[in-house]
UniProtKB/TrEMBL annotation, chain A:
Subunit structure: Forms a conjugate with ATG5.
Pfam (any one): APG12
Lineage of the species this protein comes from: Eukaryota, Fungi, Dikarya, Ascomycota, Saccharomycotina
Record has Membrane as a keyword: yes
Organism: Naumovozyma castellii (Yeast)
Function summary: Ubiquitin-like protein involved in cytoplasm to vacuole transport (Cvt), autophagy vesicles formation, mitophagy, and nucleophagy.
Topology term for the membrane: Peripheral membrane protein
Molecular functions (GO terms): Atg8-family ligase activity; enzyme activator activity; protein tag activity
Superkingdom of the source species: Eukaryota
Bias (Low complexity) ranges: 1-18
Name listed for the protein in its UniProt record: Ubiquitin-like protein ATG12
UniProtKB/TrEMBL annotation, chain B:
Role noted for this protein: Involved in cytoplasm to vacuole transport (Cvt) and autophagic vesicle formation.
Domain Autophagy protein ATG5 UblA: 8-117
Keywords: Autophagy, Isopeptide bond, Membrane, Protein transport, Transport, Ubl conjugation
GO annotation, cellular component aspect: Atg12-Atg5-Atg16 complex; autophagosome; cytosol; mitochondria-associated endoplasmic reticulum membrane contact site; phagophore; phagophore assembly site membrane; vacuole-isolation membrane contact site
Subunit and interaction comment: Conjugated with ATG12.
Membrane-protein topology: Peripheral membrane protein
Domain Autophagy protein ATG5 UblB, chain residue ranges per copy: 197-275
Protein name: Autophagy protein 5
Family: Belongs to the ATG5 family.
Subcellular compartments: Preautophagosomal structure membrane
Phylogenetic placement of the source organism: Eukaryota, Fungi, Dikarya, Ascomycota, Saccharomycotina
All copies of domain Autophagy protein ATG5 alpha-helical bundle region, residue ranges: 135-191
One annotated GO biological process: cellular response to nitrogen starvation
Amino acid sequence: MSRLLESEASSGSSGTDSDNSKVLDSHTPDNSVSRGQNNEIPSLALRNRLELYSRRLSQLGLEETPQIPLETDNTSLSQAEKEKIKNEEGPDVNSFKVKIKFQPIGSVPQIKPPVCKISATQSFSSIISFLRKRLRMENVYCYVNSSFAPTPQQNVGDLWTQFKVNDELIISYCGAVAFG
Amino acid sequence: MEKVRELVWNGALNVQFIAKSNILIDGIPENKGIVNLRIPRDTYIINYLPLVLSRIRNVLKINIDDYTGQFWFEFKDTSIPWHYPMGVIYDVVEPEYLRNSAPANDDTTLNMWKLHLNYGPNIPHNLLPLIDGINQVEKYWMHLWKQACFILNGSSKQVMSVSMKDSQIFWNSVLLRRLDNFEHIARRIVPIKPRFVPLIVHRGLSFGEVNQPTIMTHKDDGSACKILDIFVNLSLERKSSDIFICQGIQIPLDMDLTAVYNNFMSFDGFLHLVLISETHSTKES
């Protein structure tokens, strides 16, 4: 899914780096190991750095290093979806992509980064399934411009062209019906 | 215009629903599972499912008061979506009737659209699952109106401000075929001079090919947009045999888009046009 919906925020900002460091620190076997101690344990520091680079690459939509398992979106994709992505990477690699801005409603968490890019030829159902997987929720209700729910078959490019705000299609999401 | 709206609203199709043999009780002849209805073009086919089921409930294997699977309709072994107006589906799958069929006023001919009723634990992948019955259809229809309103007015405020009572009257006008009630509320949503028209272009003989182009009612030079301009908007090469069908009628290509919308708007607030091209005709043959 990271190929379908690519992170808009690049890994260049220091804020993202620090966030990643925190995440990675929590993933290390021993959280109490300080930065100084990391220098004393080269293998652990090297692993941390590799994980950091791998995470950055996945945020950029590039393939991560296969030997480091990370919780990227690709892991949760079905074989059919992977095939679909693989097929799209062929001749359609330069297809037009549009920006989607996600806004949570109520107590639903904000997905990070909030702005993603998606191929204009995708249907709206791909956004719904992306949010379901990312939020790990059974049902996600999506609305465009806090107003209406599009049909799952509707083309994302058409929706973006008609309802974009500052070149972004604003999609609000919720775990229950928000706009009846 | 009101006369045309009335004709469009009252446009109907003769439909023969045939229950598939696998959902009939063993030993029941197939003709016992047939229901003939005259259904308005401007409605959803799924609205008539309860009526069809009630007519054949005694010969069905499935208990229609308590079932967990899904019913759907098929035409020539292809499942047909319920979320487009009935007339649009007919124009998409049977476009050749305009070219080949006998004149509509021929007393000796009756066009009958034959659809099969099927049932299964899971709905075919190209259909929207119906979980909440007719209530879900109503909500879906209202969201389409919100979307159309957004295109027409730049926000959905006009639909959002319709009271609960009026929104129920609005939906009932579709179910009970009350044009006066429908027009009364639709006129509050549709502006007199919209900048954009809610338009959906379907390709003949194919349900997957649907475009929702953004098209202005007037060009930059102030001239009115014509149906012909849709080709440019969709970056399509126009062939001499290409025709647009709306509500079962071939639309002249030099007709103003606003006039077409005002006369042929569907009950969901959108203008549904079916593009039939030479390639589609040959595909079927």
